[in-house]
Write a structure and sequence with these properties.
Order of helices and strands: HEHEHEHEHHHHHHEHHHHEH
Distance between the termini: 28 Å
CATH topology of the largest domain: Rossmann fold
CATH superfamily of the largest domain: P-loop containing nucleotide triphosphate hydrolases
CATH class of the largest domain: Alpha Beta
Largest sheet: 6 strands, parallel
CATH architecture of the largest domain: 3-Layer(aba) Sandwich
Number of domains: 2
Length: 317
């Protein structure tokens, strides 16, 4: 028996921030009797609504969503947590005769689900605290230390990605082996036969949509949302508040930036994120990528057709 074809099929809709992947996933899920499993590293957190652009109440009425609002923002939700929770949600959806549709732009989450994670060492609270203090004192210097000890990992991890820079340094210090070497040694254990699709937009259109979305986030009350989160006792240093938009508003609320600068910095960080996501999409190890038109230009029908072919349900001509 062919092991690859024996794996259950799984539909995964990805794309850079602002590309319209959530709207595409919603229409596709409606068409095929699906439920959406969110693959967004920050939509998991309770209270982070505006800046993560969570699905509206109407969208959730149309299609059931999973892995949204499942984590306390005081705590850090990891890729390992996501992979376990997503696999359980996929099994649950299938047990009820529905089709799971994984949708989101956190590529490390998608990779963890589709290829598995290497057996990393357990976290060391004392080491984590020391590295966090180093980052808070000198983020650029801490990122530079990763470049010195593990240039391959530093090339894949953004210098501003606090969580992954610190985890890479933690693995290096705990094991004496660069995390990039752990990645190299890791043998992927695919559990699914994935069809991966993404809406295609030209760069100018994508950046214009990002800028509009950031303006909308601030006009809908992102500042007030962050103020409420901080007032609830979540520290400004919490991983949840490192999300784009939230980090810039925290800087604004602490007097380090004014509002217009915070908005511009959020747009700039969002565009940089989109560039990193596009780079990942161009070099997928998780499977072949199917680029489709955005939802407003018939992209949902294209994904449905590909999905039916992927599962062998397409009608013969």
């Amino acid at each position: 028996m062919d092991v690859a074809t024996d794996r259950p099929p799984l539909l995964v809709i990805v794309g850079p921030t602002g590309s319209g992947k959530s709207e595409l996933a919603l229409e596709v899920a409606e068409a095929i009797g699906g439920e959406i499993v969110s693959a967004d590293a920050f939509a998991v957190y309770l209270g982070l609504d505006i800046g993560t652009d969570k699905p509206s109440a109407e969208a959730r009425r149309r299609v059931r969503h999973h892995l949204i609002d499942i984590a306390d923002p005081h705590q850090r939700f990891s890729a390992g947590h996501f992979a376990a929770a997503a696999a359980a949600a996929i099994d649950d959806i299938r047990s009820r005769g529905a089709v799971p549709v994984v949708a989101g732009g956190t590529h490390f989450y998608v990779r963890a689900l589709l290829l598995g994670l290497f057996d990393s060492p357990p976290g060391d609270p004392a080491l984590q605290a020391r590295l966090a203090a180093e980052w808070d004192a000198d983020p650029a210097g801490t990122a530079g230390r990763l470049r010195a000890v593990d240039p391959a990992a530093a090339a894949r991890i953004g210098a501003g990605d606090r969580q992954r820079v610190l985890r890479a340094l933690e693995v290096w210090e705990a094991t004496g082996v660069p995390i990039s070497e752990h990645w190299r040694r890791h043998e992927p254990r695919p559990s699914y036969r994935a069809l991966i699709a993404a809406p295609h937009r030209d760069r100018r259109d994508l950046y214009a949509r990002i800028d509009l979305r950031v303006d909308d986030m601030f006009s809908r009350g992102l500042e007030e949302e962050v103020t409420r989160i901080l007032a609830s006792g979540v520290p400004a240093s919490a991983h949840a508040l490192k999300a784009i938009g939230y980090a810039q508003v925290v800087q604004m609320l602490t007097g380090r930036e004014d509002r217009s600068t915070a908005i511009e910095l959020t747009k700039r960080a969002s565009r940089r994120l989109a560039k990193r996501q596009l780079t990942w999409l161009r070099s997928l190890r998780e499977g072949a990528l199917e680029w489709v038109a955005p939802v407003e230009r018939g992209g949902a029908a294209a994904v449905v057709a590909r999905w039916l072919g992927h599962t062998g349900e397409a009608c013969e001509p």
